[in-house]
Amino acid sequence: MTKKLALATVAVFVAWGILDFVVHGVLLAKYYQESQALWRPMEEMKMWLIYFTSLVYAFCFVFIYTKYITDKQLKTGLYYGLTWGIGAGIAMGYGSYASMPMPYPIAFGWFAGTMVEMTVAGVLVGLLVKAEPAK
After folding, report:
1. Cα dist. 121→46, 56, 83 in Å?
2. How many helices (H) and strands (E) does the chain have?
3. pLDDT in the model for residue 131
4. Which of 27, 17, 8 has its CA nearest to residue 126?
5. Is the pLDDT of residue 43 over 70?
6. Does residue 134 belong to any structural domain of this protein?
7. Domain ranges, residue 82
8. What pLDDT is attached to residue 134?
9. 93, 134, 89, 95: which is closest to 115 by C-alpha?
10. Is 133 within the bounds of a domain?
């Protein structure tokens, strides 16, 4: 199971990186530019920390599925990812919107983007982490 855990963690991390680029670098870029006073300038961003936290988050996502989900199949992974996406997305998007003066499209983008990213991650773990055959 350790190999599956590592492979799925890397797959989720890479998928999130690609989707983050699309969501934040393309779809929301205009809104970040309009509200630049809220964010660190690009040259001050701590990219290593962003990648590190994303890797730890991917590991935790995959670990919980690997360790605690017994019905390991694509459909279960899809529902796991979607459920996680709704919970994390509402907290990130609208929880942040409640306390920060960010433009609404960013809040919605964080919510929707997180839902998509987690659902994709759920599909990946559903495909990559299968139940161990009975001995």
Report:
1. 24, 14, 11
2. 6, 0
3. 78
4. 8
5. yes
6. no
7. 2-128
8. 67
9. 89
10. no
135 lies in some domain: no
pLDDT at position 60: 98
- In eight-state DSSP terms, residue 38 is G
DSSP class of residue 36? G
Alpha-carbon distance of 111 to 75, in angstroms, equals 22
45 within domain boundaries: yes
pLDDT of residue 3: 92
For residue 132, give both structure tokens: 């161990």
Q: Is there a contact between 111 and 90 (Cβ–Cβ < 8 Å)?
A: yes
Handedness of CA 99, 100, 103, 108 (dihedral sign): negative
DSSP symbols for 47-89 = HHHHHHHHHHHHHHHHHHHHHH--S-SHHHHHHHHHHHHHHHH
Integer angstrom CA distances of residue 110 from 8, 11, 40, 114: 23, 21, 17, 6
- 77 neighbors 124 (Cβ within 8 angstroms): yes
Number of separate domains in the chain: 1
